[in-house]
Design brief:
Number of helices: 10
Oligomer: single chain
Bound molecules: uridine-5'-diphosphate, magnesium ion
Strand order of the largest sheet: 7-5-6-4-1-2-3-8
Largest sheet: 8 strands, mixed
Distance between the termini: 41 Å
Number of domains: 2
Strand content: 15-25%
Shape: elongated
CATH superfamily of the largest domain: Spore Coat Polysaccharide Biosynthesis Protein SpsA, Chain A
CATH class of the largest domain: Alpha Beta
Length: 328
Amino acid sequence: MTADVRDRALRLTPRSRAGKLLSLIVPMHNEAPVLDHLFKALDGVIADLGVRAEIICVDDGSRDATLEQLRTRAAADPRIRVIALSRNFGKEAALTAGVDVAAGDMVVPLDADLQDPPSLIAEFVDLWEQGYDVVYGVRADRRSDHWLKRLTAGSFYRVFNAISASPIPPSTGDFRLMDRQVIEALKQLPERNRFMKGLFAWVGFRQVGVAYVRPERVAGQTSWRYFQLWRFALDGITSFTTAPLRVWTVVGLAAAMVALIAALALIVRVLVVGRDVPGYASLMVVVLFGFAIQMIAFGILGEYVGRLYEEVKGRPLYLVRERVGFEA
Ligand code: UDP
Ligand code: MG
């Protein structure tokens, strides 16, 4: 695993890890079967790092024994802090809850199922010491993902980066190390719609990628459904660009031009060859096509208006039911 996409021209100010605190944020939804593997892996990694660490476990409304197990562990291990959300709010909200309480000089969100290999954190911290503010993992090979997920994810990054002003490096996830400064910047972003990897890219700072191979989930089951991924992709695009809204001006103008040319052609034809009544089929095609285009445009407007409504309501992103391991 080596760092790629390093910008040699960047002037970096080296830092030291001595005495620094590392916050690990682990969102968990029904992850009881993986907890043993997870904490064993984290223990090994933290012991070798030479920094103090806190492990912030965000229980995102699990229905299995995740929370009970976390309480037991937190009682025995002062590094473990637990936030239990009042219901399932989704991974993005869970991550936000973790970011809000993380006290670390460095913050690393990672999945509970060990698909974000904790061993990579050592390399993240090395690069942070060199002066990078954000060190993100790049999935070098997604063989562990289903082909349909690879295809949909690939097309998403292409579409997103083609129309958004702050491109996301392809094949990155939430797995990354962020400096305190970056965390403070993220906390200033008020939006309810948290498309985290988009926000991570938007804040800027000195960023560097580290390639890694994404392994299979160690145990348990994924919580994502394709429908959720579709919503997630729409959230991402709508919160970073209004291009889908504006494109309809161009589509409308183009359609009007075509209609004008067709009208002129028809007039000329009537003048030259006389009246021509048949044409029902072509008429229907044009009417249906125009109708479909309008419906798509309405749908896209709806996507934005709906999100505007969510933002305006201003509800909290998550509600906390219980905290364990935090001083009052
Ligand atoms: N997760 C969560 N809330 C959810 C769904 C997922 O906190 O509603 C967590 C989950 O426990 C895991 C991480 O997000 O730590 C990634 O989820 P998963 O492994 O199910 O997704 P995949 O790896 O298949 O993308
Ligand atoms: Mg996973």
